[in-house]
Amino acid sequence: MSEKNKTLVSGIFLIVMGILIAIFGGQAVLDVYFGIVSLVAGICLVAMGIYAMSKKQPLPAPTLTLGCVLLAVGVTLFTDFLSVGVLINFLVVVILGAGAGILTYGIYLLVKKQTVPGLMNLVLGLVAIVVSVLYIAVPDFRSVFWIIVGVLIAVYGLVEFIYAIKEGK
User: Fold this and answer.
1) How far is CA 18 from CA 43, 52, 70, 127, 157, in A?
2) What's the confidence (pLDDT) of residue 129?
3) Which of 115, 117, 118, 120 is nearest to 152 (CA)?
4) Can you give the residue ranges of every domain in the chain?
5) How far, in Å, CA of 65 to CA of 98, rounded?
6) What is the mean pLDDT of each run of 10 residues along the chain (169 residues)?
7) CA 121, CA 129: separation in Å to the nearest integer?
8) Pick the CATH number of 3-162 from 1.10.3470, 1.25.40, 1.10.287, 1.10.10
9) φ, ψ of residue 29 in degrees (nearest 5)
10) 21, HSE (Cβ side, Cα atoms, 13 Å)
């Protein structure tokens, strides 16, 4: 499978995943559904991170980290080791970290003179950080948190999809 096709598939998956999270929300999702989504997303992100490392692409760590955490969340949900509430709080912290990684990657792309993807990663990273901090600091914000996270993931997937088509990567 070519790099362009992998990016297209990744973009489509992120769009679908983002829409599902935005519709069903984090709190209202059944343990099994959330576990399956976490496992599938984790496997895909780990595979993308390993592939990025094999091609010596810059900064595969945010993708690998988020993938490993999602795998751990999925396994934990299926074993009933922790409650969904505890895992959601943990996932918020992971989203904060992933936002920092995306922000860093956006800065890297801007330095490499790739303006459009750099700005998109910069904006998405900043929004992920702000949304995570708001979830932690403002309890009333929790009702809309998962809608925003789902939309962010879908937008990130759409950006990847469009960039893959436009740039042929």
Assistant:
1) 16, 22, 15, 15, 8
2) 92
3) 120
4) 3-162
5) 8
6) 67 73 59 73 82 71 75 77 72 86 88 84 88 87 77 77 70
7) 12
8) 1.25.40
9) -80, 140
10) 26
